[in-house]
Amino acid sequence: MERVALGRPSGTRDAVPAPESAARLLVVRTVAVAAVLATAGYLTWRLLATLPEGAALWLGVPFLALELYGGLALVLFVMTTWDVAPATVPAPRPGPPPSVTVLVATYNEHLDVLLPTVAACLAMEGEHETWVLDDGDRLEVEEMVTALGARYVTRAEHDHAKAGNLNHALALVRTDVVAVFDADHVPDPDFLTRTLPYFADDRLALVQTPQHFYNTSSFEHLRPGADLHEESLFYRVIQAGKHHAGAAFWCGTNAVLRTAALREIGGVATESLTEDFHTTMKLHRAGWRSAYHNEVLARGLAAGSPDAFYAQRRRWGRGAMQVLRHDNPLTATGLTSRQRLGYLYSLSAWFDSWRTLGLALVPVSVLVTGVFPVDAPPALFAVMAGVPFLLQQVALGLLSRGFAPARFSLLFEVVRLPSNLAATLSLVLRGTGRFAVTAKGRTGEERTRARVPALLLALAAVLVGSLLFTAASLAGWTPVEHGLGGTTLVPVFWVATTLGFVVAGIRRIRDPRFSAERRDGHRFPAALPAVVEGAPARLADVSLGGAQARVRGIGAAVGAEVELSVRVPDRAAHVVFRAVVRSRSGDVHRLQFVGRQWRELAALSATAFGAGAARWAAAEITPVAVEAPVAPGRRVPAASLHPDAVSAAVRSPFVAPAAARPPVDDDTRPIPRLTPELERALAGADGGGSGR
């Protein structure tokens, strides 16, 4: 049987990490301690024996300050990642599980981005309601949400952005917990069954899971199709370490929160742009606990372009600076010492870019002025600095557990410079910035390359200029004397290496792969049998906007409206779409879906993301009367007409009980194969349920 290729990117390390062996832990921690001790010895030597005198002091002191900051960052990283063992689930308590309302917050995301999330939320296992909180007041969203069987919620005042949207819903929900998802994050069917057991702890307010991304060709990913992305280290290692310090925090999506805890602290924080981080700090200050479940249970859209990446990072950074102003973790009451250190590490990380910039400019200053910032022979300095540096790199590699390749991490240290520097400057400059939704899906009509930030261009020019100046000095054309000794070769090597990373960052930003996205939804590779206007066909790829298919025979003319029937493995009948042939090359037809085919698209989406397309053929939704009178002049969400819609979508005779996850051995989790046995079983289920 041919393997079905349609599936969701998942990677081989999505499951809860296996506990580390005692031998591995011993090696990791021994190297980490050795790196910290070697760094401390080096910094002591630098402080006591190498500070220059006279004119060189103006460069020597800032350089030493940068090294001291790096030493502190190393200690905080070691402390954070010392223990990343999986969280322990509390013993179950008698009684029913917590009641759940699933909240999907949206503002301006395209329907092709939002629909998979709503479909997957409705299809999650366990009793729950699904509400879509639309701050854009869009009629098409209401129509789509209602057709799928979720509840559509709007509000009269659109203040405080996402935080205000969630607080409005918080005043309406009557369940024990709320599961929160961004519009683009598609949960697995077992999301609730994996996270709700933690709430057996009566003082637990929050369970956070990793953010992971299915558009593996994004700007943030290591390379096209790779599972690692720029945030992998944080979500799979750092947050796991924060859990053991009691400092794991809400990251805005893929989380479950106790309603009573949120209400106790006055709702979601509105004082900063990072409402999730700030809310968690308030919860911790009030004595509530958090847990981090280190298993990928939802997948979203990473920032696809450099512009989206920079907008996202500026917003996060400005929000972090606002938290520093409002609730500095060093002075805020109610936090434990480990929580203070955990929050301090998270907030201080935004200032790392100043160290990166400083370390890039120190060797430039050496080459331009001829002044060396260390009063020691270059050979001795190279040995004293080199040994701790090598130990640091080995320790960082071990502590990152393989989620942060060195070259990739160094590259993004450079790439992040413009956004992080701008964000940290907001701590001292007037103005806090405004909330801006990260662009997802379509971001432009044309494939225009991203503009390189002026800071990176200026830094590249400075680095190149210092090398040219050094070459001129070696030729005797400048007043600065340079020889071929260590005081020249060390900074030249340093500048050349930094320039290599800056150029690599610029090339990445300008890469056509990361230009404006013209598609609304993500495109999945596919190898599914299909029928186009009665002719046998096979899909090559599919998105929620259309498909590409190879059609046997004459095919259809460009511009013609056709019927596309797709057979998906977990649905008894074909999924039938109306589509227009936008273009063709030989037998390859590029089709665009037309009309509002919400339930058909939901079936296709659920198949692509593994949620189960058969749930969307489970039952017809019968409208019922509205119980409460309608206030004059107020718009009534159409979803209020269908209170039975959620149960109709979730409880399905087609859906088998959840089974254990099979091991994954590549970058895609395929949907089940369509075997004759499965076809017969589905046909039987269809016959038994056709009267519903």
TrEMBL record:
User: Per UniProt, what is the membrane topology?
Assistant: Multi-pass membrane protein
- Which spans are transmembrane here? 21-43, 55-78, 356-374, 380-399, 454-477, 489-509
What broad class of enzyme is this? transferase
The protein's superkingdom reads: Bacteria
Q: Which InterPro entries match?
A: Glycosyltr_2/OpgH_subfam, Nucleotide-diphossugar_trans, PilZ_domain
Q: Where in the cell is it found?
A: Membrane
GO molecular function: any one? glycosyltransferase activity
The protein's name: Glycosyltransferase
